[in-house]
Specification:
The protein has 942 residues and is an alpha+beta fold. It is 38% helix and 10% strand. This is Aminotransferase-like plant mobile domain-containing protein. Keywords: Coiled coil.
């Protein structure tokens, strides 16, 4: 007979589970907490709070910005209000995980994130299909059929996409920060994508007391469903049989479901590029047939627990739902719980832990992250979607289910994808009316409209896990465009809450899900597109993180020649054998246009493959280049307008400088020279000694292996982009730098001084020479600075600032304006996302043969590991069989020992009885003698 008792240990109440006559060691004690629901729940006075408004919208004439057309219009704005925030237009910048990684305060590490990976459980899919076939009506009554059906499949992730998502997630606002503003996961999103109900009973995740578990009302109605106690008995049985003294999900499924498994574990997942939905899948088909008879082994489970016949189905359903036994048993009776609220609180809390961790990869946050996958799949093109009619289920996330349906993205591609969302796609899940209209919350609407009303209100989300109380702010007005409202400045949260007492937690939940408030909601029409106010655009520009802004490394830079149109341009073009230069005089405009177009085309092509931020050094006051011999030398020391940008370089041959002849310029002519140089990060100028005192970074290696290992998974840690640009495989040939010459230089050796070639220059042009010298010095300094920055680890870049000041001083001596270069260098130090872009582009340049070879190596290693794993499983099976044999022998020996002990006891009892028998015989002999004597006496008397 099962026994349930309450007892206290150190002022803590415990539920003890045991059997009558069982050893004390088999008793299991579970910590009991005060219930928030049920007959024994605490009685609280739920007074009205200030979290509710009589009207949750406002209308005003505002100047609005249309992102699609990039124009401002004056119109009436429909705004969503909040009761938790106060008006605040401060422009304090938000801090994201991406910012913390750039600043060195956080690091992903080299390991794959431990959160969010799928786990295969033998028998779960078969058991779930059986439960869905038997209990569809009960699950529908509890409003969880869609959510349970959605758990029938595998939901996988693209690691790079999840990393990018976490880096753009803001824990202070519980929203994703993208260039157009904020987006987030709403309660309505969870209902639409995951099939989770919003309205319902408070989700009370605690162990009940023995009084509640076994008690009954006055009418003999149990306080809790009978199935609840059977769940605890099953838990005790598994716990006592476990060598590790714990109960896992695998143990739980194996205990309850005894049918033959039909589904095998899917093969190891390999992330790779796919062009469409995979043809095969190891997931269930989603077809739920008729219920079948249970096997004798499964029926024996119910018999061993003493489950009554009329509650077998309820107990089986509760066992499947048993995240918490109390709630599971109530849902198995058709009770509807508010699941979306605690699930979203758990998601917000888990993302807060990840984005606040110094090492997110090793963060042990546990939350239902597959709903995040479902959200990404609905708002972004991140999964291959199945046909809408494939599954009869209201949870839309089933369309992206499958172990191969996640699209592959590099880290930069994932970053671009998340930032590419447009306002027109934000309201794809929102409800609407043919015409804009008011809905009053009188609590009598359909389930959909009641849930939608709750989703539009600001509130605090709560989650209770035993003695842990979690509170997260829910602010739908921060992402109002997802409900077709206009987006305005959200303001600042009045009160920061993270936890509270049980009474406070329940009060916040009741306020969040309260209906019949008589409040008015304006519902936009179907055709409404969420716009933003002008004030919001200006506020977001000042408040948004630099990491989520438009001007990042992931943005394709414009051609550096675009701003130089119509000016005298010196271009450096790439050839197969040498690096040559051409000068386009102002008079040769037609040819200049052709050269400009050609180089612009090449620059655009290079920007796609290898985007970089061009470094520029424009002069604030352009000065002329004097070419008259009569002009004093001193007057030629004037600043030149120089633009240093990046293009492409040759792989072979020495570097030569070729300049065409230039006509003599009048002393009053003013020429602005725009210089476009080749990829400075790839040029290997021989400038050893200029920055000898900088820290040695030659040991900054291992990037090649790191890059190879991160090819598919991606990581923000790894080689510097300029290190990759200088890989030995590029085979760049370094050579001496030669001054520009008016004659064609030799390809084998530097030009020799000799008889001057005919020239149109009538005098020794000191101004041009000084100008060219400045240009060359600027290019050398610029190249060397980039080389040093590229070879320096991210965490040591700030230590270079004092040494860079020395270089800037040299620029000053040359009368060159270095402020733009300094700005770009500081931007590089503060924003290393250029590295991510470079690594992604280098990954895309890998040949197909290299990729296939590396994938083949990985598959080979995986196969070897799987064989070793199978061998270990075989050995473990043999060990288990050996242990079972040893246990059988031990039982037999114990039986033999018991038999021998019984025989010994019988023998000992026999030995004790022998002396007694001798005494009886002696007494009988004496009696006989006495009788003989009496007989003799009688005869003598006769």
């Amino acid at each position: 007979m099962a026994l349930f008792n309450d007892h206290s240990i150190d002022d803590h109440q415990f539920l003890s589970i045991s059997y009558e006559g069982a050893a004390p060691a088999t008793q299991v004690d579970l910590w009991v907490h005060d219930p928030a629901i049920g007959a024994l729940a605490l009685d609280w006075d739920l007074s009205p709070d200030s979290h509710h408004l009589s009207r949750w919208y406002t209308e005003s004439s505002r100047e609005l910005f249309n992102h699609g057309k990039s124009t401002f219009i004056s119109d009436d704005a429909l705004l969503l209000r909040s009761s938790l925030h106060k008006k605040n237009n401060d422009s304090e910048r938000f801090l994201l995980l991406g910012d913390r990684i750039i600043n060195g305060d956080a690091k992903w590490g080299n390991t794959t994130p431990q959160f969010g990976e799928i786990s295969f459980i033998d028998g779960y899919w078969e058991w779930l299909e059986d439960v869905l076939a038997r209990n569809k009506d009960m699950l529908t009554s509890a409003k969880i059929y869609d959510a349970v059906f959605a758990s029938l499949f595998t939901y996988v992730r693209n690691t790079n996409l999840i990393r990018s998502f976490c880096e753009l997630w803001c824990p202070s606002t519980n929203s994703l920060h993208v260039p157009i503003g904020e987006v987030s996961i709403s309660l309505w999103d969870l209902r639409q994508t995951g099939g989770l109900s919003i309205d319902g009973i408070f989700y009370d995740e605690v162990v009940p007391s023995a009084r509640e578990l076994t008690g009954a009302h006055k009418k003999d109605v149990p306080l809790l469903p009978p199935s609840c106690k059977y769940l605890f008995l099953a838990y005790r049985k598994i716990y006592c049989a476990s060598e590790a003294s714990n109960v896992t999900v695998h143990d739980w499924v194996k205990f309850w479901f005894k049918e033959d498994p039909r589904y095998k574990q899917p093969p190891a997942r390999v992330q790779k590029k796919r062009l469409g939905e995979p043809r095969t899948s190891n997931n269930p088909t989603g077809f739920i047939g008729e219920k079948k008879l249970r096997s004798k082994d499964t029926e024996k489970v119910f018999d061993d627990l003493g489950v009554e016949k009329d509650v077998k189905e309820e107990t089986n359903l509760a066992a499947l739902l048993s995240c918490v036994f109390k709630v599971a048993s109530m849902m198995a009776q058709g009770k509807r719980f508010s699941l979306a609220v605690p699930v979203l609180a758990s998601i917000y809390h888990g993302l807060r832990e990840i984005t606040s961790s110094p090492n997110p990869s090793k963060c042990g946050a546990a939350f239902p992250i597959h709903y995040v996958y479902g959200w990404l799949g609905r708002y972004y093109d991140s999964y291959f979607l199945s046909a809408p009619t494939k599954f009869e289920c209201g949870a839309r996330m089933v369309r992206l289910a499958g172990e191969k349906n996640a699209k592959h993205f590099s880290f930069q591609e994932a970053c671009d994808l998340l930032k590419s969302i447009t306002p027109s796609t934000l309201s794809l899940l929102a409800l609407g009316k043919p015409q804009q209209g008011i809905v009053t919350d009188h609590g009598k609407h359909s389930d959909s409209w009641n849930d939608y009303v709750i989703s539009l209100r600001s509130s605090y989300l709560t989650l209770r896990r035993s003695n842990e109380h979690i509170v997260e702010p829910y602010s739908p007005h921060r992402f109002a465009r997802q409900f077709r409202f206009c987006q305005d400045i959200p303001g600042k949260l009045r009160e920061e809450l993270s936890t509270g007492t049980l009474e406070a937690i329940y009060q916040l939940w009741e306020s969040c899900t309260r209906l019949n408030t008589r409040a008015d909601f304006m519902i936009p029409s179907h055709s409404s597109e969420g716009l933003t106010t002008k004030e919001y655009v200006e506020w977001w520009k000042k408040s948004s993180s630099n990491f989520c802004g438009d001007k990042l490394a992931c943005e394709k830079p414009k051609s550096p020649l675009a701003a130089a149109k119509g000016k005298n341009i010196i271009t450096f073009r790439t050839t197969k054998s040498k690096l040559a230069t051409e000068v386009t005089p102002p008079s040769s405009r037609s040819k200049g246009k052709e050269v400009t177009k050609a180089v612009t085309k090449e620059s655009k092509k290079a920007a796609v493959v290898n985007p970089k931020t061009p470094l520029s050094i424009p002069a604030s006051k352009p000065k002329p280049i004097v070419s008259k011999a009569s002009e004093p030398i001193g007057e030629s020391k004037k600043r030149t307008n120089i633009i240093l940008s990046e293009g492409s370089s040759s792989d072979k041959g020495e570097r030569h400088w070729k300049r065409s002849k230039k006509k003599a310029a009048d002393s009053d002519s003013r020429l602005k020279e725009n210089v476009t140089v080749s990829d400075l990060a790839k040029l290997d100028y021989n400038l050893d000694g200029i920055l000898d005192d900088l820290p040695d970074t030659s040991n900054h290696v291992e990037f090649q292996n790191q890059f190879a290992s991160d090819e598919r998974e991606g990581s923000v840690d790894g080689p510097d982009p300029f290190d990759l640009a200088l890989l030995p495989k590029q085979n760049f040939v370094s050579g001496a730098i030669h001054l520009p010459s008016t004659s064609k230089p030799s390809t084998s050796k530097p030009p020799m001084l000799g008889r001057a070639a005919p020239s149109t220059v009538t005098a020794f042009d000191t101004g041009s020479m000084i100008s060219c010298g400045r240009l060359l010095a600027a290019k050398m300094y610029d190249s060397n600075i980039k080389s040093i920055l590229g070879k320096t680890p991210f965490e040591k870049l700030t230590s270079l600032r004092p040494k860079l000041q020395v270089i800037y001083a040299e620029f000053s001596k040359l009368e060159l304006d270095y402020s733009p270069l300094q700005t770009q260098v500081e931007k590089y130090i503060q924003n290393t996302t250029n590295y991510v872009s470079m690594r992604s582009n280098f990954a895309s340049e890998m040949t197909l043969e290299v990729k296939e070879r590396r994938l083949a190596d990985v598959d080979t290693k995986r196969g070897q590991l799987m064989e070793e794993l199978d061998q270990l499983d075989l050995e473990a099976k043999k060990l288990r069989e050996s242990l079972e044999g040893i246990d059988a022998q031990r039982t037999h020996k114990q039986h033999c020992v018991s038999t021998l002990q019984e025989e010994q006891a019988i023998i000992e009892a026999t030995e004790v009885m022998e002396p007694t028998d001798m005494e009886v015989a002696s007494n009988l002999e004496q009696l006989l003698k006495s009788e003989l004597e009496e007989i003799q006496n009688l005869a003598w008397l006769d």
